[in-house]
Amino acid sequence: MFAYIIRRLIGAVVMLLLVSLVTFGIFFWLPKLAGQTTDQIAAGFVGKAPTPEAIQDTKERLGLDDPVLVQYGDYLKGIVAGRDYKAGPTTDKCPAPCFGYSFRSSQPVRETLVDRAPATASLALGAAIIWLAGGITIGVISALRRGSLWDRAAMFIALSGVSLPIYFTGLVSLALFSYSLEIFPGGGSYKDFTDDPVRWFQSLVLPWVTLAFLYAAMYARLTRAGMLETMNEDYIRTARAKGLPEKTVVTKHALRASLTPIMTVFGLDLGLLLGGAVLTESTFGIPGLGRLAIDSIRSGDLPMVLGVTLITSISIVVINLIVDLLYAIVDPRVRLG
Amino acid sequence: MTGTAPAAGKAGTGEAPAAFLEVRDLKIHFPTDDGLVKSVDGLSFELERGRTLGIVGESGSGKSVTSLGVLGLHNKRNANVSGEIWLNGKELVGASQTEVRRLRGREMAMIFQDPLSSMHPFYTVGHQIIEAYRVHNDVSKQVARKHAIDMLGKVGIPKPDKRVDDYPHQFSGGMRQRAMIAMALSCDPELLIADEPTTALDVTVQAQILDLIRDLQQEFNSAVIMITHDLGVVAELADDILVMYAGRCVEYASVDNAFHQPLHPYTWGLLGSMPRLDRERSERLLPIVGSPPSLINVPSGCAFHPRCPYADLNDGKSTTERPELIELEPGHKAACHLPLDKRREIWTDEIRPKL
């Protein structure tokens, strides 16, 4: 078990290295391959009407004249050990983990990420709780009443849930519950939990439900399919033959066995969302990592894009590691190692 | 009298019987898109405590459906169950789901065919036995655990106090079936149904398991229904044999009678299909020609007539009239149109010498 975790962690680090290498390469190496001079690259980072001094300054600060591999090495070193940026006479000390500075705001990337992460985490975790509870419950009931009116209605709604994009359901729910009925505050009203818990909750209800609706639909179908299969297993018959109440048979015996495929999908979904729910955050104006990613890409803020990409990869890798460990707990036949 | 003959005559009277288990005119039909599947169509039998009834027949003859029916494990939504099942003075077909559930595991228990797929892969063997015990007995986990260890020891699992925490996949096939038996017997059921308990096991283990079931039956004095297509198992264990064909009983006899003077051509066929070591190897087995009938369109008259080599001897009665199950000798019933003397003649002259 311990050796397994160590091995998985090493694998995770290798994977993160690869992700960062590819992302870094796209932004710092491809332009060179395309024939851009370092001056041109630096000019892109300075802003409108760059002066030759500003360009020279930027080039030195970022070490753009160094070979790409050296730059990448510096970047990694910054994450692990911190990094010094020479800016003319002064030196900026950027403590570890240093993701560099935003080209646009000159803020450290790390601070911005830390600033934006709570909003994304609140959104993703809250929605996850709702969609897991809702999706699995609906799926189980549908499976037990296969072919009934409830089943058909639930599966129809689930299908529409999967097919409707978030910017549609999100905008409709905003128009209905926020602008017409005025039950919940509108877009862009998000406040951090630590600042204003009530506001935090109110502003997140609609995004939670909208995002959860999309996923719950998928999980309901997944649960239903899994339950239909499990309920026909021999061990379910055995459980009934023992005289267990039907409730125990369904929850303890059938549902638990149906959970493993759901866990796999859940790991991927949650990991991805923790890196930023781009559409939901944009629709509801939540200042999370997803919005940050979009804004940074639009403005060509490369260190920021790199930072968000790495955070997303880390969350996917970590959540999946947790899921794999949970596998071994849920299904004793899974041997880790 | 060696056995208790089925009491078809009492069917539908609704009176509580004297026997421990009595099944009267049991019908289990499944409506499907292709038509009504009559898996069990009018089956009656009785069973006393301490005795073993072997139900034999080909795949699809309704053996397993019958046993699941006795336990009330058919889903009422896709199965029509009618008739009467009396267990210890209680009628089960008309009883509520909850009532039957309370009896399951406690008064009647079942051993299933494939012990790997029949045990939950995510729970330890001990947990599953404890669960079975605690549904019906209000005891603490520690007490139940001790009982589970006792049971595992009783069915011959070495180091039961260690193995109790193992998962089913850590057991060998034979051990798993022993654990399954321990689970079924954990509440001292008075009726034990074993549905092909040895089919998935290799021969040496088969014998051990059969011995175990016999020993436990003597210890607990329970009634046992042994469902199998293996006549060897029946010969080993059963007191009486019920031969099923197309959802009906075609012959009912004591083991001695069934093996030494069977009165139904289908039973002859089954005996002919059984390999024997005490005969010349050069002789071929005598399989029953054809395949089991569709349970949606059961052949008219005697369901066995398309495969019966003697169907032509009855002036067409075999294709038009369904033979009733008639008691021909005390405790020996068969459903066949052939005159009794003719049957005895065919058995002695044609069938027996070839077996």
Report the C-alpha radius of gyration of chain A, rounded: 25 Å
Helix content of chain A: over 70%
SS class of chain A: mainly alpha
Query: Which descriptor suits the 3D outline of chain B?
Result: globular
**What order do the SSEs of chain B take from the amino end to the carboxyl end, as H and E?**
EEEHEEHEHHHHEHEHEEHHHEEH
Whole-number total of structural domains of chain A: 2
Question: Mean of residue pLDDT of chain A?
Answer: 84
Explain this structure to me?
- Chain B: Its main location: membrane.
- Chain B: One of its GO terms (molecular function) is ATP binding.
- The complex is a heterodimer of chains A (337) and B (355).
- By secondary structure, chain A is mainly α.
- Chain A is built from 14 helices and 2 strands, in the order αααααββααααααααα.
- In chain A, helix 11 runs antiparallel to helix 14.
- Helix content of chain B is 33%, strand content 21%.
- In chain B, strand 4 and strand 5 form a beta hairpin.
- In chain B, helix 3 runs parallel beside helix 6.
- The interface between A and B is medium-sized, with 20 and 30 residues.
Give the topology, please.
The complex is a heterodimer of chains A (337) and B (355).
Chain A: H1 2-28, H2 30-33, H3 38-46, H4 52-62, H5 68-81, E1 83-87, E2 90-94, H6 109-144, H7 149-163, H8 166-180, H9 197-230, H10 234-241, H11 246-274, H12 278-284, H13 289-299, H14 302-330
Antiparallel strand pairs in A: 1-2
Chain B: E1 21-32, E2 35-47, E3 52-56, H1 63-70, E4 80-87, E5 90-91, H2 97-103, E6 108-111, H3 125-136, H4 141-154, H5 160-163, H6 173-185, E7 191-195, H7 203-220, E8 223-228, H8 231-237, E9 240-245, E10 248-254, H9 255-260, H10 265-272, H11 317-320, E11 326-329, E12 332-334, H12 340-354
Parallel strand pairs in B: 3-8, 3-9, 6-7, 7-8
Antiparallel strand pairs in B: 1-2, 1-4, 4-5, 9-10, 10-12, 11-12
Helix pairs in contact in B: 3-4, 3-6, 4-6, 6-7
Family (chain A): Belongs to the binding-protein-dependent transport system permease family.
Main location (chain A): membrane
Domain ABC transmembrane type-1 (chain A): 117-327
